[in-house]
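step 3/5: co-fold with fe (ii) ion
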Amino acid sequence: MVHHHIRSTMIEPQDCDDGDEHETLPLPTLPPMPRERVSLQKSSICSRSYFMVVMVFFHVYIINVIVLLLYVHYNNGPGDVLATPNRDEASRGSNHHKPPESHQQQSDSAFHRDMYLLRLEGIRVGHVQKVSLVPDKVHEMRTLSLKPLLFEIPGFLSEEECRVVVQLAQLKGLMESQVMVPEGQEELTEQLNLSPEEIFNLLDLNQDGQLQLQEILTHSRVRDGIWLTPEDLREIYAGLKADPDGNGLLSLEEFRSLGSDAFQRFLQQRGVKSSQLVRNSRHTWLYQGKGAHQVLRDLKKRVTRLTRLPSTLVDLSEPLQVVRYEQGGHYHAHHDSGPVYPETACTHTRLAANTSTPFETSCRYITVLFYLNSVEGGGETAFPVADNRTYEEVSLIQNDVDLMDTRKNCDKSNLRVKPTKGTAVFWYNYLSDGQGWVGEQDEYSLHGGCVVTRGTKWVANNWINIDPDYQRQARYQQLVSQQGEEDAEDEGEQSQTSPEQLHTADSHQEL
Ligand code: OGA
Ligand code: CA
Ligand code: FE2
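step 4/5: write tokens
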């Protein structure tokens, strides 16, 4: 744009003689003309004084443009000029995102930091690259999507290793991934302190004065961990006689007469089957640090090599989560980790952060998912919006088709990965910030486990936790290493509290 303007301005004085309305006036060769004549002539706009004025404006314009360019350059900082290693398509979005002031200051002071996150390159969907993860084998890594940046590595685990991981999990015992919470949401609704009219207006996304099914579901697909489908909602309307005309729409009057906890009460009364939960599986956690089974430690080492991240980061991450789905099991689409705002804390660095905030997320930068068996029927991992042109939460439900519902609509997902024993898939749940650290959440990383139609499905998750706030991550690591030194000084035989255990105990009460 700016460029274009400069060019057109530069051409203008020359164009002056081409104009149909004025005569040719070869300026440099003409002798000075008397003032009166100049002002009277039709061609006076090509006079010397006119030329002077134009030139003055032209120079002022050029100076303005230069000042503007300098301003833009210095305001962007060196970060946008320097390419980070492996900066790729997946760092998209980082340029139009301006971090808030406090965040900016922090990243400025962190310029001479000693940790950078390498990000693998996807190149294009279907691209295969060879990776060296274990001594005598070369693995092939295939790019499955760029949004999110997602890879598949067949044979990441041997048959033997899959068997050991499953057996270790069985030995430890698995618990229900989701327990039904009978009540407790009422207080929240009371705290909200919104009138029914206000709630109605917030839910009425298209502001047509009616609540369509998807408007309700977009906001509260999950109530108390119960997954609502359009059919459930119709059943609730019928049961509560909420929609007398039966058109599937709620008017303000109909909504008002419902009462805030009507849905919950209805659902509780009806009883909940596990197939109606967000997640229908059992899981356990396996520690992978010092003293853990060799297979688990090897696995962690391999994950470090695969992701090419500093080993401290991998070491300080969550333990391995082993999940079992029985026939009929599923996990509706979700993000493994939430969006981060300046006031959002990460579970793993919470202790190191000296603020207490109401928002917390697990800050799982990467998910590495292992298939520990080949499933007889169903059980694919679905990515409903992978490589979609846009991500719009509202359009995830259309005409009673909920793309996040992995019991019903996996076939409509953009991408499905078939569970094959020993295969690993991994993806980034966050973009790059363009400067070698974690950026914004990648919404396209939405995924879920499709319903298992036949047999059992065993998977394991390795999450790599990194705080998008570099300073907080650094402080946390410092704290953990100090703790480690103190433990070593104690010299007690049982004092084997490793950083990983500390972390584990803090963030997983279920353990
Ligand atoms: C998970 C998950 C997908 C699957 O455990 O977080 O998304 O295919 N699993 O089981
Ligand atoms: Ca509406
Ligand atoms: Fe997940």
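step 5/5: annotate
Residues 323, 331, 336, 381, 447-449, 459, 461 surround N-oxalylglycine (ligand 1) (CB under 6 Å).
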